[in-house]
Amino acid sequence: MDLRADLFIDGQWRPGSGGERFDVVDPSDLSTITGFAVATEADCMAAVDAAAAAQESWAATAPRTRSELLRAAYEVLTDEVETFAEIMVRENGKSWSDAMGEANYAKEFFRWFAEEAVRISGDYRLSPAGDKRIVVDRAPIGVSLLITPWNFPAAMATRKLGPALAAGCTTILKPARETPLTAAYMVDVLDRVGVPKGVVNLVTPVPTGPIVAKMLARPEVRKLSFTGSTEVGRELLRQCADGVISASMELGGNAPVVVLPGADLDLAVEGALLAKMRNGGSACTAANRFYVHSSLHDAFVERMAAQLADYRVGPGLDRDNQLGALVSVSERDKVAELVDSAVADGAEVVTGGHAMEGGAFYEATLLQGVRHGSRITETEIFGPVTTVVRFDEVDEAVRMANDTEFGLMAYVFGEEREAVAVARRLESGMVAVNRGVVSDPAAPFGGVKQSGLGREGGFDGIHEYLEEKYIALTA
Ligand code: ADP
C-alpha cells in the first residue's frame, strides 16, 4: 500500500524543512509502519501563509463548486473504502469492523456538508421601527486550524474539514501524532478531486504545543476546532483568548448508562455492548459507568459478562477479530492501571482484567461492585472496560449520572416514557434512549459542562465556520 507520509502545504507534498521523521507504529505488533515528516515551526508558518493566501478566492468560489468537490471526495472515499479502513486499522489498531464503521461514518460528513454548502442562508427584513432594512449575511470566518485526536482519525477530521470547506474557509489540519497516515490519505483524496492549493494543508508539528501556540498567535487564524482532552482544550482556549479566536471544542466525556427497572434486558445488553465496545471503548461517547437497577443487576451483569468473555481479541487485519488493540502500550497501561485501582477500591472482576501480550491489547472486561466516586467512575477509561454500579432509586441514579464535570453523552434504557423523562434530566449534550449509538452527520454532536463548546454536524456544524454580517439598508 502506498502511504503518504509527508506534509501538505500550498498544494504540495513535502518533507519537513528539518528533514526529520517520527515513527508511526502499528499497535497490534508494535512494528514501525513508516516515518512521518516532522513539521518545523517554519513549515507550520508556511501552512498558515498558504491558507491565508487562498482564503479570499476560496470564499469567493461558488457554493455549488465547493459542494461538488466535497461530493467528489465522498465518492472517492466510497470507492476506496477498504483502503481507507485498512490505513486506520494499521496505525490505530482498531478492529476491521470498527474501521469500516468509521470509514463509512467519516465520508458521510463530506456528503452531508456537500448538501449544506448550497443552503447557507441569511436574513432580510424590515426593522421593528420601520426605519431600515436589516440584511444579515453569513460569511466564512477565515483560516481554520483543525486539531484532531487519534481515536477516530478519519471522522474527527471530516467532521471539521466538511463544514469548514463548505462554509468557504481554508484549513490547516493537525492530526494526532499516532495517526497521521489517515489524515494524509484524506488530504490526498481532497487534492485528487481538485480542491485548490492552499485550501487544505496538513502539518504534524513537533513539539506540538509550542508550535500550535505560534500558529494561534498568527492574526490570520480566525478559528480553532479541537477534539481532544479537556486538559489540552482548556489550554487552547486560553491561547485563543489572546487573539479572540473563535473556538469549537469537543472535549472529554464520562458517559453514564442508566438501566431503569422497566428496561428490556435484551435491548439493554445489545445497546450496552455497542455503547461500550464500539471502537474498543476508545471513544469520547463510550459508556463509562453503568448504573443498573437492582431488579436487573444480576441478570445484566451475567449476560454482559458472557458476551464480553466471548469477544475475539486480536489484530484488526484479521477481519474476524471483534476487539482490536489500543492505540499504544501506554494507553493500554493506563487502562490496566485504572482497573487495578478499581479493584483496590473494592470492585470485583467478573471477566477479563488483564493486558495481553504481543501488542497493545487489553481483554474485554467487566467489573461489578464498583463504587460511584471511585477513580474509574470519574476518569474517561478509553478502553474495553465495563464498570457496573447498582442502584435502587431512580433519583439516585440520575444524581450519580450527573455527578461529573463532563456532559457529552448519556444512555438510558427503560420503558420509553420513563426513559425520555430521565433523558431530559441528564446533563448531557446527547442522550441515547434504548440504543447504543447516536452519532449521525445530520445530528448536532457536542457536549455541555466541561465536555465542550459548539456543535459539529447537523445544521449547526457549518455555522461554527460562518460569521454573521449585518448590513443596514434604508427602508
Ligand atoms: P488524546 O487523549 O486524544 O491524545 P490530546 O488532547 O492529548 O488527547 O490530543 C488531541 C490532539 O491535540 C492531538 O492532535 C494532539 O497532538 C494535540 N495536542 C496535544 N497537546 C497539545 C497542545 N498543547 N497544543 C495543541 N495541540 C495539542
What does this structure look like?
This protein is an alpha/beta fold and 475 residues long. It contains 14 helices and 22 strands. A seven-stranded mixed β-sheet has the order 14-17-18-13-12-19-20, sandwiched between helices. The chain has a six-stranded mixed β-sheet with strand order 9-8-7-10-11-21, with helices on both faces. Strands 5-6-22 form a three-stranded antiparallel β-sheet, with no helix packed on it. The longest helix is centred in the first third of the chain and has 22 residues, at 96-117. It is globular and about 65 Å long.
Write out key terms for the chains shown.
475 residues, alpha/beta, Aldehyde Dehydrogenase, Chain A, domain 1, Aldehyde Dehydrogenase, Chain A, domain 2, 2 domains, seven-stranded mixed sheet, binds adenosine-5'-diphosphate
What's the arrangement of secondary structure elements?
Blueprint: E1 7-9, E2 12-14, E3 21-26, E4 31-37, H1 41-60, H2 63-79, H3 81-92, H4 96-117, E5 123-126, E6 132-140, E7 143-147, H5 155-167, E8 171-174, H6 180-192, E9 200-202, H7 208-216, E10 221-227, H8 230-243, E11 246-250, E12 255-259, H9 265-277, E13 287-293, H10 294-309, H11 329-344, E14 348-351, E15 355-356, E16 361-362, E17 365-368, H12 375-378, E18 385-391, H13 394-402, E19 409-413, H14 416-425, E20 430-433, E21 452-453, E22 466-474
Parallel strand pairs: 7-8, 7-10, 8-9, 10-11, 12-13, 12-19, 13-18, 17-18, 19-20
Antiparallel strand pairs: 1-2, 3-4, 5-6, 6-22, 11-21, 14-17, 15-16
Helix pairs in contact: 1-7, 2-4, 2-5, 2-6, 3-4, 3-6, 4-5, 9-10
Bound molecules: adenosine-5'-diphosphate.
Adenosine-5'-diphosphate binds at residues 147-150, 174-177, 208-209, 212, 228-229, 232, 235-236.
